[in-house]
Amino acid sequence: MAKSNYITRTGWNALDQELKFLWKEERPKVTQAVSDAAALGDRSENAEYIYGKRRLREIDRRVRFLTKRLEVLQIVDYHPKQEGKVFFGAWVELENEQGEIKQYRLVGCDEFDPSKNWISIDSPVARALIGKSVDDEILVDTPSGKVRLYINRIWYEK
Q: Which family does it belong to (predicted)?
């Protein structure tokens, strides 16, 4: 399954800031450290040199990824027409059959964060929620079987 190219403005800004930090601050520092370590002589047993070169490759790989990804990402801003229904960027309060309540925000695959209860728009739960309203019931396939969830509340950060 291909991942979607949607992202919130906050998520896009975070990736853009990471790219700028890596390119303008982190990379020049590491490049200087590698240059300094190289000047010390034998590079084959020089841990600072070896680690620095490895870190430069990691930075360059991440910079390439972020540059390409930011070009194709589509920022999705809140629109008043979304009110009352679940769409990208929505916060949703769900209740399972045991009465347990959880809140999730539907975000792009580049910004999902379980610690913040942000789930990817590409996840089974998010796909089942799209277009639904308060009091709707959804059935989600999970590895442990089908789960029935009820939508208690929907809201957006404006």
A: Belongs to the GreA/GreB family. GreB subfamily.
